[in-house]
């Protein structure tokens, strides 16, 4: 009996985590194509268009990225440990 209770509890926790993960991925997906500014730990501000976030959260893909030196890159893959914040130019309503 106790084993069944633990199994049910574990299953409920896994279901909750799966729903949270799915909601997070849908929210990130809805940010595709939004203009943003990226602030880095190097005290730099980059601008561009948000494209996607790697599912494991390790990298962000930005299109038409402009650097402080006025260099425009067609696309750039930024490591999340280098990013302090991402600010979207327009208010974003996440559809969860």
Please name the CATH topology of the largest domain. SH3 type barrels
Through-space gap between termini = 37 Å
Structural class designation? alpha+beta
CATH class of the largest domain: Mainly Beta
Binned, the helix content reads 25-40%
Which strand-content bin applies to the residues? 35-45%
Residue-averaged pLDDT: 88
CATH architecture of the largest domain: Roll
The H/E string reads HEEEEE
Give the oligomeric state. Answer: single chain
Low-confidence stretches: none
Number of individual domains:
2
Strand order in the sheet with the most strands: 4-3-2-1-5
Largest sheet: 5 strands, antiparallel
**Structural shape:** elongated
The total count of strands amounts to: 5
Count of DSSP H/I helices: 1
Organism: Papilio xuthus
InterPro entries: SMN_gemin7
Protein name: Gem-associated protein 7
GO cellular component, one term: SMN-Sm protein complex
């Amino acid at each position: 009996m106790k084993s069944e209770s633990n199994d049910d509890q574990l299953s409920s926790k896994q279901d909750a985590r799966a729903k949270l993960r799915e909601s997070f991925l849908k929210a990130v997906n809805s940010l595709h194509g939004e203009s943003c500014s990226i602030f880095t730990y190097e005290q730099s501000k980059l601008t561009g268009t948000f494209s996607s976030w790697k599912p494991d959260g390790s990298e962000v893909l930005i299109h038409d990225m402009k650097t402080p030196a006025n260099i425009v890159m067609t696309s750039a893959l930024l490591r999340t440990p280098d990013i302090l914040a991402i600010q979207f130019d327009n208010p974003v309503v996440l559809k969860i």
